[in-house]
């Protein structure tokens, strides 16, 4: 007998509230549940399934590596990890890469490196971390404390010291906080979980200048925006601002758990042998899959196609909205799209999501007022059109 959704309530820790249906199979941008019902996937596993489900290149890489080597630990290195690191270095500002298993771990490593550099160079007082109000950087105790959302960090006892929060896209609020004891500023180029709000070029350039002035490091959290999501390999290219450290995960593995911290050679030297680590980081299976995913995404044709797919989705959303008048704004970059509800529908994003599910469409929320779309970067036009048709029906049902 197959497991059911009821088994979640019986056996699993109740920190999630999953949908009533249980997906069992995916292909491209379509998903099927236990009853055989089909869904168009505009959610992408929360911006993870960068090539959709069961992409041939990823499946082939996983299958080949599964017959070779699964795990050896970081007592040794392995060929897939070295090959992936070389690809990342060749395509980015980075000169060194640290592999881990998730975005939270990538940010944990980034923040630890930044503090280590500050303390090594300037003394123990150089440990202050600045981040944005309503940001999201992971669920470890350090990263959830750095993320500016008390609803995620409250209730777990005293938080780590030396963390302060500024207002996103408000350079003056950063200037009021930053000083010579600041080790780093961490920022999402697009504020993801809190509404799909892109940073302005002026704000990110201003952060770069402030960090340089105060000998602080600039960290870009590109867990959600990286690996082609915005139409560039990484979003920093879109804004013309180069960070000192960058975190990546989600789309990097195309669905296989992997994270990475990218940095320069001179900074990487501060994490000498034994100062940081992870049992599974750089796992051969994960790196083999990520290497295949990287090759598909870092192809000029794939990256160029993202703009066309965004235009098709946004045009469809605008046409639907012209008829139904549900959304106040369509925003974001590339295939990270936020549709903000009008004030009349404030707080009802969950209702829209449920209506979409009922029509066979998987979407996401970004807070209570924004519907978030993060589909496959190679989603077929036919799937876009069918998904938009289902979304239109869902919004009509939502409005009643």
How would you sum up this structure, described in words?
This protein has 400 residues and is α/β, with parallel strands linked by helices. It has 2 domains: 150 residues, Aspartate Aminotransferase, domain 1 (Alpha-Beta Complex), CATH 3.90.1150; 229 residues, Aspartate Aminotransferase, domain 2 (3-Layer(aba) Sandwich). It is 40% helix and 18% strand. It is built from 15 helices and 17 strands. The strands form 4 sheets. A 7-stranded mixed β-sheet has the order 4-12-11-10-7-5-6, sandwiched between helices. Strands 1-2-3-15 form a 4-stranded mixed β-sheet. β10, α10 and β11 form a beta-alpha-beta unit. α3 runs antiparallel to α12 and α4 packs parallel to α12. It is globular and about 60 Å long.
CATH class of the largest domain, named Alpha Beta
CATH architecture grouping of the largest domain: 3-Layer(aba) Sandwich
Strand order of the largest sheet: 4-12-11-10-7-5-6
Kindly state the percentage of residues in helix.
25-40%
User: Main beta sheet: strand number and arrangement?
Assistant: 7 strands, mixed
Radius of gyration (CA) equals 21 Å
CATH structural fold name of the largest domain: Aspartate Aminotransferase, domain 2
Beta-strand level of the residues, as a percent range? 15-25%
Mean pLDDT, as a whole number? Answer: 96
Number of helices, counting only DSSP H or I runs of 4 residues or more: 15
Sheet/helix structural class: alpha/beta
Question: How many domains in all?
Answer: 2
> N-to-C terminal Cα separation, in Å?
39 Å
Count all strands and give the number. 17
The parts where pLDDT drops under 50 for at least 5 residues are none
The CATH homologous superfamily of the largest domain corresponds to Type I PLP-dependent aspartate aminotransferase-like (Major domain)
**Shape type:** globular
Pathway: Amino-acid biosynthesis; L-arginine biosynthesis; N(2)-acetyl-L-ornithine from L-glutamate: step 4/4
Family: Belongs to the class-III pyridoxal-phosphate-dependent aminotransferase family. ArgD subfamily.
Protein name: Acetylornithine aminotransferase
Enzyme class: transferase
